[in-house]
Amino acid sequence: MRCRSLAFLAVLLMVPSAALAQTNPFDGLNTGGRAYLDPSVYAQQKAQWLARVDAMPENVDVLEGAAEFFMPFDRPLAHDLFQRARDLEPTNPKWVQKLAFFHRLNASSGDAAEARLALSLAERAYAMDPSQSSALTDLPAMAFDAGDMTKARSYAEQPLAEAVTFLRASGDTPGSGVLNSFGPNMSLAKDLLERGEVEAVLNYFESCRLFWKMGGARLDAWSKDVQAGNIPNFGANLRY
């Protein structure tokens, strides 16, 4: 009986390491480093990654980690792994984004077909999750690379339109002790003036008058500067 108990205890002592491997799918794996400089190290780490993928074929974190590792030297394999993750989570825009980035890298050599595919995937990912702020900065350049100047111009204008909307919304405030005394921060107004959004900024000044009674003279001076084609010196109102 004692021997059986000792054997059972031995089995129990082995559980934590197995459980750890399940808890941390990257335990014992490397993520590159010297492997990209030493072919023998790369071959060793490649084998380790492939073994982990075989052991956890439905773990999207492992699939992603392996794909990122293989991206520099085994790009077709990386694509396959990203695609497998997408098949496991078809409604997750993350994998569409990853594939878009993959094809964007391929397009960096001047491959127009890859650039068009990258743009198509990026647009699909954005449609799946329009809250992605990074997409609005990537899409104009991707459309340009794909040779679609109409889309490039349209996507480039979207962040600007959002900024104008935000400026307008920030003016619709009842005010506060600080705002009523010192006035609002004018950093966004300055940025928009530098991009030619004169009317939006002048309207914002008028909205500020409703709560910033003490700033009437300053708003008058700023409005005159803007109407004259200049960017006002907002002074401390760039720091509040």
Overview of this protein structure:
- With 240 residues, the protein is mainly alpha-helical.
- It has 12 helices and no strands.
- It has helices spanning 2-23, 39-55, 60-70, 75-88, 93-107, 112-128, 133-145, 149-171, 177-182, 187-194, 198-209, 216-227.
- Helix 3 (60-70) packs antiparallel against helix 4 (75-88).
- The chain is elongated, with a radius of gyration of 28 Å.
- Mean pLDDT is 85; it is low at 1-21.
The major β-sheet equals: none
As a percent range, the share of helical residues equals over 70%
- Please identify the structural class as seen in this structure: mainly alpha
Beta content comes to under 5%
> What is the oligomer described by this structure?
single chain
Brief summary:
The protein has helices spanning 2-23, 39-55, 60-70, 75-88, 93-107, 112-128, 133-145, 149-171, 177-182, 187-194, 198-209, 216-227. It is mainly alpha-helical.
